[in-house]
Amino acid sequence: MRALTWQGRRDVRVETVPDPVIRDGGDVIVRITTTGLCGSDLHLYEVLGPFLDAGDILGHEPMGVVEETGPDVTALRPGDRVVVPFNISCGTCPMCVGGLHSQCETTQVHAYGTGAALFGYTKLYGQVPGGQAQYLRVPFGDTLPIKVPDGPPDERFVYLSDVLPTAWQAVAYADVPPGGSVAVLGLGPIGDMTCRIAAHRGADTVIGVDLVPERLDRARRRGVHALDLRQGGDELAEAVRDLTGGRGPDAVVDAVGMEAHGSRVAAAAHSVTGALPAFLAAPAMRHAGVDRLSALRMAIDLVRRGGTVSVSGVYGGAADPLPLLTMFDKQLTLRMGQANVRRWSDDILPLLTDGDPLGVEDFATHRLPLEQAPDAYEMFQKKRDGAVKVLFTP
Description:
The chain is an alpha/beta fold. Helices cover 28% and strands 19% of the residues. Strands 3, 4, 5, 6, 7, 14 and 15 form a seven-stranded mixed sheet that branches. Strands 10-9-8-11-12-13 form a six-stranded parallel sheet, sandwiched between helices.
């Protein structure tokens, strides 16, 4: 089959690799019909190379059609249409039963002390082959895949793999009161969808912050108060407070993470760390704390006293300083974590089968053959051609 493979920093290639096979009685093989390019994939493209090997298959936002099932699978059969969540959760352990599928005790990666394994996402999360490929082996066939109806286009459902549950959890964790206010930092795919879900769930004032003109315009068309980050910190903070009665929003969602446009020193640290040999870069990534914290610090500054900061952007370092005095003084609540996809999928699915209130069918800005994935990664990283969300057709 053809699949997108990691070969080195800023070097991904579509290659011919062996087809996946059933390895356990609960496995299913899915023929991928649509698969997404995620902002988190850029961390692999740029920074997290020390935890990848040449040839690793990337991608964690796939959907498709079941081609083959293991002998123990009873919930699916060949021909069924499914979306595959990005985190690999068994659905039956205490963590999964409690709605914390991203902490699944069956697939936790104990070698690195991390949570549930992820498709296509480094040794830190199991080094499981990903979904930017023609076929994908999916374990836990009875509990993990999300069965969706035939008929509507893939664009209606593919975001159940990551974008929709991640944004849904960001809003749920933000705990915006009815008629309240929320500011979303970063208007990439997750931030854009977070704004849509916040409005759908009853937020009266939704503020989005970014510096890419196309992303700002796109959010404004959905009724978001879109503010340009380039207008400066003090001026931006004043604009946010003017929109929220002078006290700041009830919640702020950091949908940026370590791709933030922070200081040049932090950017240099990312670049240097990504270029180090693996045996030096891996401990540096885990312990030296090279994340760019500008977005998280902005969230803490903007949120009102007693408010909530919800973090959906991915951070990778382990020694970043936080303004704990400010956080304590403002009595902030801070919630974060990988999305628990299966916790939210049943809540979201009705919105995709009864109309399209979140605008998912025209959410993608680019739909490309998988063979063009290397160029798409570069385009997405450099924010060219109005790229907000890219979908591949294997």
